[in-house]
Amino acid sequence: MSRPDPAAAPAAAPTVADEDAAAVHLHEVGHVYDGAGGPVAALGPISLTVPSGTFLVLVGASGCGKSTLLRLVAGFEKPTSGTVLTGGAEPVPGRGAGVVFQQPRLFPWKTVGGNVELALRYAGVPRAERARRVPELLERVGLHDVADRRIWQISGGQQQRVAIARALAGDDPLLLLDEPFAALDALTRERLQEDLRRVSAQTGRTSVFVTHSVEEAVFLGSRVVVLTRRPGRIALDLEVGLPRTGIEPDELRALPEYAALRAEVGHAVRAAAA
Ligand SMILES: Nc1ncnc2c1ncn2[C@@H]1O[C@H](COP(=O)(O)OP(=O)(O)OP(=O)(O)O)[C@@H](O)[C@H]1O
Ligand SMILES: [Mg+2]
């Protein structure tokens, strides 16, 4: 477990060597929006290095800058100060990262299956393999029954699951997920958390996952970062030493270390929001 040391020297600018090692590197990143009523300092300054294979979960109060941070990492916005690198280079929107937004953004004129198929096509998966993998991905998110429906014929929670299946379909080294499970019922949410934990342990894809849920953060994260209120800075940076493979979800939740981590993160979230 590690915490930011306020006395430590500021993080050094990224060098070529650590560009290779770090999937995501934020150096002194700040973001200020031009709001209608004047500038809005949304994030930072924040420095963060996320090595490949990390499942990083960001937790923080509403409006503290979590979506802003994800948008910067996805390349949809440029930071107003500091540097963001993914895989050693400036992020390019639509390249190198599978993204699940807070609001699902799907092609409404396509079917559920069609949306997932398109993501596979973009990932360069050949037609025959696509035909096999679409039902497999839909089964994984519990949507196999509605594969032929149009997007406007399914519920909001189902739309969110299409977005998740689509992000899982690509083979981008980086997955960025902005509260993907927030609109789901408790049972589906738990099932998808378990799936995502297993899939991420199998594939080792680097992930940045945003949530309000302390429980979800500790269950999914190999590392949990708690942000302060706006402009979001790091309040807690915790390595989660829980086993990632060879353990059933219920066994994991029953571990005393799990309860201790949940209490620690919960405490930090409450303190950061106070
Ligand atoms: N385009 C924008 N123009 C002006 N202000 C913005 C813009 N986008 C976001 N903000 C403000 O920046 C702050 C951070 O927003 P952000 O969406 O990153 O928060 P968040 O942590 O994702 O919140 P939530 O948990 O509610 O999704 C908020 O105060 C928000 O109102
Ligand atoms: Mg948000």
TrEMBL record:
Residues 24-254 form the ABC transporter domain. SUPFAM superfamilies: P-loop containing nucleoside triphosphate hydrolases. The keyword Transmembrane does not apply. InterPro entries: AAA+_ATPase, ABC_transporter-like_ATP-bd, ABC_transporter-like_CS, ABC_transporter_ATP-bind, P-loop_NTPase. GO terms for molecular function: ATP binding; ATP hydrolysis activity. It comes from the Bacteria. Keywords: ATP-binding, Nucleotide-binding, Transport. The keyword ATP-binding applies. PANTHER family: ALIPHATIC SULFONATES IMPORT ATP-BINDING PROTEIN SSUB (PTHR42788:SF13), TAURINE IMPORT ATP-BINDING PROTEIN-RELATED (PTHR42788). This is ABC transporter ATP-binding protein. It comes from Microbispora cellulosiformans. The lineage of its organism: Bacteria, Bacillati, Actinomycetota, Actinomycetes, Streptosporangiales.
